[in-house]
């Protein structure tokens, strides 16, 4: 037999706690509120027992919403022109469709025939039939007029929005632009 004796198993030692600060050290350190969540800088627990602190009794347990103050310093006129053009075209299409539906509803209710008869009676003279309102307010004529108005609206809205972007950029150069406060969703 060799003279080797079995070695006793080592007992795990409890982790040493950091010494608590003395009263004079505590006065020198700035007071920090307890954190309910880990710091965003440390993505993992670095072996420190104080990485996640539990709130004291009566402390706030709901995390605060992060807010950021931002400033719109410049609006790109080209992108403003493209977006305003598309929105104006969409508004023009909606206008034409709405006028067509409204005209069909009013025609089905007999509004044009009633108004046409009244206007024809009021404007008729000796042997003259008077003004024919029904042919003047026919669907093709109304839709052509509405399309012309929608086209003018597209050109004007696009031009005014682009001009507004230029004016905003000039004024933002003087006063700094519009400040926004954005909050993170919970």
UniProtKB/TrEMBL annotation:
Residues 9-21 have a biased composition (Pro residues). InterPro entries: DUF3566_TM (IPR021949). Residues 42-53 have a biased composition (Basic and acidic residues). The keyword Nucleus does not apply. Residues 1-68 are annotated as: Disordered. Keywords: Membrane, Transmembrane, Transmembrane helix. The chain crosses the membrane at residues 83-106, 142-168. Pfam families: DUF3566. This is DUF3566 domain-containing protein. It comes from Streptomyces albus. The lineage of its organism: Bacteria, Bacillati, Actinomycetota, Actinomycetes, Kitasatosporales.
């Amino acid at each position: 037999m060799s003279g080797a004796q079995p070695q006793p198993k080592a007992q795990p030692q409890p982790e040493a706690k950091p010494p608590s600060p003395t009263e004079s050290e505590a006065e020198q350190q700035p007071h920090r509120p307890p954190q309910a969540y880990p710091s965003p800088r440390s993505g993992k627990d670095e072996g420190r027992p104080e990485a996640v602190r539990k709130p004291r009794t009566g402390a706030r347990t709901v995390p605060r919403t992060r807010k950021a103050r931002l400033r719109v310093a410049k609006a790109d006129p080209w992108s403003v022109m493209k977006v305003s053009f598309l929105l104006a075209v969409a508004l023009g299409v909606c206008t034409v469709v709405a006028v067509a539906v409204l005209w069909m509803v009013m025609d089905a209710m007999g509004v044009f025939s009633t108004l046409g008869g009244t206007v024809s009676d009021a404007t008729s003279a000796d042997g003259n039939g008077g003004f024919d309102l029904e042919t003047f307010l026919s669907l093709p004529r109304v839709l052509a007029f509405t399309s012309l108005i929608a086209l003018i609206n597209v050109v004007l809205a696009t031009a005014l929005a682009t001009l507004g972007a230029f004016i905003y950029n000039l004024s933002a150069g003087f006063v700094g632009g519009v400040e926004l406060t954005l909050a993170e969703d919970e």
